[in-house]
Amino acid sequence: MNKNPNEGLKRSLAERKREILREIQDKFRDVRAEAEWKETSEELGTGGIFEADTQQDIEFALIQMKAETLDQINQALSRLDEGTYGYCLECGEEIPKRRLRALPFAIRCKDCEEALEVAEERVRDRLLMVGSHVER
Questions:
Q1: CA–CA separation, 47 vs 49, rounded Å?
Q2: Which is higher by pLDDT, 37 or 91?
Q3: DSSP letters along the chain, please?
Q4: What are 30-34's contacts with CB under 8 Å, separation 24+?
Q5: Dihedrals φ, ψ of 94, to 5°?
Q6: What pLDDT digit, counting tens, does each position of 80-112 carry?
Q7: Is 103 part of any domain?
C-alpha cells in the first residue's frame, strides 16, 4: 500500500518537469542553430530573413509558454510538500479531483477561476475604453 497518496502525482509532475526541461533545451538548441545558419547564409533574401525572424519569434514564444508551465509545475510540487495542494488559493475550498486530474497545477477552483477571468476582462474593457477616449 502506498503511504503517501500524492506520491504518484509527485512522480507524474516530476516526469512532466523533466520532459519540459528537455523540450526547452531542444528549442534553445534549435533557435541557436537557426541564428547561426541565418548569420552565415549569404543567399538568404529579405523575405527569407523575415521568415526566419518570424520562426524565431514563434520558437521564443513556445519556450516562454513551456517555461511558464514549468513554473506552474514547480509551484504545484511546492504546494504538495507544504500540504496545501488541491485547495483553492481564493476561497480555501478543496479543488475537485476531476479538475486536478485535468489541470494538475490548478490553483483555483472552477468558480474562483471564472470570477477572476470575468474581473480581468472587465479591467481590460475599462482600459480599452479609457484608451479610446485618450486617442480622441
A1: 5
A2: 91
A3: --S-TTHHHHHHHHHHHHHHHHHHHHHHHHHHHHHHHHHH-SS--HHHHHHHHHHHHHHHHHHHHHHHHHHHHHHHHHHHHHT-TTB-TTT-PBPPHHHHHHSTT--S-HHHHHHHHHHHHHHHHHHHHHHHHHH-
A4: 30/59, 31/56, 31/59, 31/60, 31/63, 34/59
A5: -70, 135
A6: 999 999 999 999 999 999 999 999 999 999 999
A7: no
Domain of 64? Answer: 7-85
The structure's pTM equals 0.69
Residues 6+ away with beta carbon under 8 Å from 110: 96, 99
Residue 16 falls inside a structural domain? yes
Number of domains forming the structure of the chain: 1
Q: What distance lies between CA 18 and its chain's CA centroid?
A: 15
d(CA 72, CA 66): 10
Determine, yes or no, domain membership for 126: no
The amino acid at 81: D
Classify residue 11: in a domain, yes or no.
yes
Q: What is the mean pLDDT of residues 102-127?
A: 94
| Residues written for the chain | 136
Q: In whole angstroms, what is the distance from residue 116 CA to residue 90 CA?
A: 10
